[in-house]
Design goal:
By secondary structure, the protein is of the alpha/beta class. It has eleven helices and 13 strands. It has a single domain, classed as Aldolase class I (TIM Barrel), CATH 3.20.20.70. An eight-stranded parallel β-barrel has the order 3-4-7-8-9-10-12-13, surrounded by four helices. Strand 8, helix 6 and strand 9 form a beta-alpha-beta unit. The longest helix is centred in the middle third of the chain and has 22 residues. It starts with 15 loop residues before the first helix and ends in a 15-residue tail after the last helix. The N terminus is likely disordered.
């Protein structure tokens, strides 16, 4: 990496057409914030499926091209799981500029999730609390949609989980892997949602050792039938250093390809001001940034470059994406920021991140990964 240079970067000026389109999306975002959050979410998905989403080239900036666990990404900004639970709009999301998209979490059987209301905006804090509880239409419908995009470009991953009433949660993850393996670019096991009782217990050493052992056994057969896929694990930000050590050790022992750090938090930072701050559920958005980035740094120190990390939590700008990369992430994911900044955020972040890297004299995003720990 070359010595930092003084920045003369300015965001590209939009054409008249781009300004009109941006204005439409901004108005749509403001309108969606006036209605119930879950209804707004469904409306946003419908708009994407109808072709009303923004358009931005994911490979616009050569400097942002990178690799993650053997996957070639046009840029390191991904769509986090939770937005497109049923794999309804991955191609529209890719068309908006995301370098990769993660659909799910999907469980073997369809389930309704927790009672409504279960999503709460904390507008003053640029945050969201959700207690959805893995609501989704089940593996069969998800896998059908995923398989229907065979032959199309773009990196689309599948995030799998366990049913709330499952008698054998490890078996649910194995079943999920089997259903999506032949169609997904990668598979993530989500063991860190706070909204399914007992699920986070799978992060404890004994339970995780059993789960990863069964997943590894299933993976051998799946790879023989369908070829290799990267296998990721999504963890919580609310882990102590002992748990981080255990998870890091087991991730290496059982041949995982990356860790996603992190899911939502059960913490409630004292600076929250919204009336909804005491709602039960997982907190995401801007207040999660410091918490999740601290966990990311601890995993970076533990793994010392032996396993890629994906940074999630409070990513809302090129600057916050850069901070995650510096802390050790090879790529980042976002979701909650779209609630407040709209679907055009991805294109703006790509512009900003490329400009920030140019200002530092960096020719490739990979040069900046983990510089804080070097």
């Amino acid at each position: 990496m070359r010595a930092p240079q003084k920045s003369c970067y300015a965001p590209p000026r939009e054409s008249a057409t781009q300004q009109i389109v941006s204005g439409f999306h901004d108005m749509s975002t403001r309108a969606l914030r006036l209605i119930d959050p879950e209804t707004a979410h469904h409306a946003a998905l419908l708009g994407l499926r109808s072709g009303l989403g923004p358009r931005a080239r994911a490979d616009r900036y050569p400097r942002l091209r990178t690799t993650l666990a053997g996957l070639d990404l046009p840029n390191p900004i991904g769509m986090a799981a939770g937005f497109d639970k049923n794999c309804e709009a991955p191609d529209a999301l890719l068309a908006s500029g995301f370098g990769f998209v993660e659909c799910g979490t999907v469980t073997p059987r369809a389930q309704e999730g927790n009672p409504r209301p279960r999503i709460f905006r904390l507008s003053e804090d640029r945050a969201v609390i959700n207690r959805l509880g893995f609501n989704n239409k089940g593996l069969d419908e998800f896998a059908d949609r995923l398989s229907a995009r065979a032959g199309r470009g773009g990196i689309v991953g599948a995030n799998v989980g366990a049913n709330k009433d499952s008698a054998d949660r490890a078996a649910d993850y194995v079943l999920g892997m089997g259903k999506v393996w032949g169609h997904a670019a990668y598979v993530t096991a989500n063991i860190s949602s706070p909204n399914t009782p007992g699920l986070r217990g799978l992060q404890e050493r004994g339970a995780l050792e059993e789960l990863l052992g069964r997943m590894r056994e299933a993976r051998v057969a799946l790879e023989a039938a369908h070829g290799r896929r990267p296998l990721f694990l999504k963890v919580a930000p609310d882990l102590d250093e002992s748990a981080i050590d255990d998870i890091g050790d087991l991730a290496l022992q059982f041949g995982l390809d990356a860790l996603i750090v992190s899911n939502t938090t059960i913490q409630r930072p004292p600076h929250l001001t919204s009336d909804n701050r005491e709602e039960t559920g997982g907190l995401s958005g801007q207040p999660l940034f410091q918490i999740s980035t601290h966990a990311l740094r601890l995993f970076t120190q533990k793994l010392a470059g032996r396993l890629p990390l994906i940074g999630v939590g409070g990513v809302e700008s090129g600057a916050t994406a850069l901070a995650k990369l510096r802390a050790g992430a090879s790529a980042v994911q976002l979701y909650s920021a779209l609630v407040y900044q709209g679907p055009g955020l991805v294109a703006r972040m790509l512009d900003e991140l490329d400009g920030l890297l140019a200002a530092e004299g960096v020719d490739s995003v990979s040069e900046i990964v983990g510089v804080e720990a070097r």
